[in-house]
Design brief:
It contains 17 helices and ten strands. With 389 residues, it is α/β, with parallel strands linked by helices. Strand 1 and strand 2 form a beta hairpin.
């Protein structure tokens, strides 16, 4: 979108959280709010939805590239919006539009390239992983820290993590552990590893390509990509033990298994994981494990509908207000001493968990496109039951 007459171009760019450029048959999205780590605000979701829909429908568009500026690709959702807005209509609208958009990104009809130059957290990760090609670097970090805040892995992450090898999905979802570019490449969260200094050249090459053919674009990226080995401290070196512990049926059993393994000589690294789980929200841990486990047998659409229910019920405090307490401790007061309620895993029964997973009446469900029922790019928030309340 170009500046209006009389506007200074640089000032205009500074004010826009999402920049878009049209270059031949290529479209470029730049997340442009570096002072706030390119967080996903309602305005960002709205703009991205408009662009993705317009470009998928345009005959002259073949490639869409998304990137970020500053110290992060995208640090995820706007936690302050959740904290202050709670379950108000504008918050529900932002959540609805984000999950609805995620379905279309996962099933996009044009070629998507994500250039993940730095940190991608939570919803930021979900903007990148579904791409046709996800380019990572030595500075790339991905994490899903929601469970520790009393929330759950959302925006399609329950689906994404459930499809990782073994039980890495449960491990990443419950611990919020960070993986780097080499890790991402190894487990399928990235497709190409390109050194940071080569990114400008790669972008220029992609913009100048005469074709959006998948094979041609792949070959172009491979010209800049390199082979990379796992780092010495990569958690993936402990895959067998992670699978053993995180394959247990309950969070309690996972913790017990970790404690037992941590007492064995050479397993000192497990103590850090135990500490993370013990200081995390019991409610967040139980919601997250159940969500990721369900996702193993769910379609993308079913996962997004489930995540939407979980998020709204969390915002409404159906079984706990831990998410607000987690955000308060980390982002608002920054005392990093959350007071969870309930305080223990044992207090969160299956009956309580079922309350946040329960389906809504049809008009209040997330409307995912379905053949002969909801056409693609329909089912928007504006036509949902929430918009007529």
């Amino acid at each position: 979108m170009a500046p209006t007459s009389g506007e200074n171009t640089s000032d205009y760019a500074k004010e826009q959280a999402v920049l878009d450029e049209e270059i031949g048959h290529v479209r470029l999205i730049t997340l442009n709010n570096p002072s706030k780590l390119n967080i996903i605000t309602p305005e960002v979701v709205k703009r991205l939805a408009v662009l993705y829909e317009k470009w998928e429908k345009a005959d002259d568009v073949e490639i869409i590239i998304i990137k970020g500026v500053g110290r992060a690709f995208c640090a995820g959702g706007d936690l302050r919006m959740f904290y202050h807005g709670k379950a108000e209509k504008h918050v529900i609208e932002a959540v609805y539009k984000m999950y609805w958009l995620e379905y279309h990104i996962h099933t996009y009809k044009k070629l998507l390239v994500a250039i993940v130059h730095a940190t991608a957290m939570g919803g930021g990760a979900s903007l990148t992983v579904p791409s046709t090609f996800t380019v990572v670097t030595e500075k790339t970090v991905l994490a899903a820290p929601e469970a520790g805040l009393g929330f759950h892995t959302d925006a399609s992450l329950s689906y994404i993590l459930s499809h990782l090898p073994g039980h890495l999905g449960e491990y990443l979802a419950l611990t919020g552990a960070r993986v780097d570019g080499a890790d991402m490449l190894s487990i399928g969260l990235g497709t190409h590893y390109v050194p940071s200094e080569k990114l400008p050249e790669l972008e220029k090459c992609l913009v100048n390509l005469k074709s959006g053919d998948k094979g041609i674009v792949r070959a172009a990226i491979e010209e800049f990509s390199i082979e990379v080995q796992l780092g010495e401290k990569s958690i993936l070196h402990n895959r067998l033990l992670i699978d053993k512990c995180f394959s247990n049926d309950t969070v309690e059993e996972i913790v017990e298994s970790l404690i037992a393994e941590g007492n064995i000589e050479g397993n000192d690294w497990i103590q850090g994981i135990i500490k993370i789980l013990k200081r995390s929200s019991p409610t967040g841990l139980k919601m997250t494990l159940k969500s990721v486990r369900q996702a193993r047998n769910q379609t993308l659409g079913e996962c997004l509908k489930k995540e939407f229910r979980l998020t709204l019920n969390t915002l409404r405090g159906v079984i706990s207000n831990d998410m607000y307490e987690g955000i308060r401790a980390q982002t608002i007061d920054k005392d990093f001493s959350p007071k969870w309620n309930p305080t223990s895993l044992s207090e969160i029964t299956e009956e309580k968990l079922d309350l946040v997973f329960q389906a809504f009446d049809e008009e209040f469900e997330l409307q995912i496109p379905q053949e002969e029922k909801i056409p693609r790019w329909e089912g928007k928030f504006e036509s949902s039951g929430y918009n007529v309340q």
